[in-house]
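Example record

The entry below shows one chain as it appears in the dataset: sequence first, then structure tokens.
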Amino acid sequence: MSLSAALAADAPPAFKEAAALFDAGVFDQAAARYESLRAAGVASANLYFNLGNACFKAGHLGRAILNYERARRLEPRDPDISGNLRFAINESRAKDTVATTGWSVWLAALRDYLTAGEWTAFAATCYWLAALGAIALLLLPAARKLAPVKRWLRPSVIGFTVLTIAAGTGLITRASVENGPPAAIVVTKEVVVRFAPVDDAPRHFTAVEGQKLWITGERASSMAGVPGWVEVERADGNKGWVPANAVERI
């Protein structure tokens, strides 16, 4: 697995230390060093990608998938990030929980191809091009020599209008994902999802390491040192409760 996100010459010393630990094959220590940077507030696709690599090499597939997902949110078209994420999922038990075919998969990939900011810029550009073309059509005099220009403008206005609608739809769906229930990754080998937030509640289903779930509720623990509970939703809509430390938000 490549470390394509190369270290900059002015990278923080902790980043260089983590990279040196990775190169030395001390993957758990490298992951811990990268994690300390994340805990200090550093957030970049480069950091998450390298943290994902260290976690993968250390055998922590759930945390590897988690950090590749974080990296992909910031750099959705980076081939190394996408490739390593697919590889990690295929190496984990979570591969059986991920859809790989169908319209929903294709539409989700299209939605995630651009960030929300990029969808906004694309939609705004198409809108103004369509608007300027329409204004030009209305204001151009009906001179015979301008007929070729008008013939070219009409399909252009229609095309940019269609693109504006498509880009607006992409922006709305991307924003709905980002502003909806937060996605999380199971970071333990497996976790029992229960019908209620108590240890002796009936089992509902089991989630496996690396599986993506969506957090729809939280409940704090009344006991000191005992993690709280989060309500999670599976891709098929089934919901239940798991200990808060069994999952981590992307």
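Notes for this example: The helical segments are 13-23, 27-39, 45-57, 61-74, 79-91, 103-111, 116-139, 147-179. The domain at 13-91 is CATH 1.25.40.10 (Serine Threonine Protein Phosphatase 5, Tetratricopeptide repeat).
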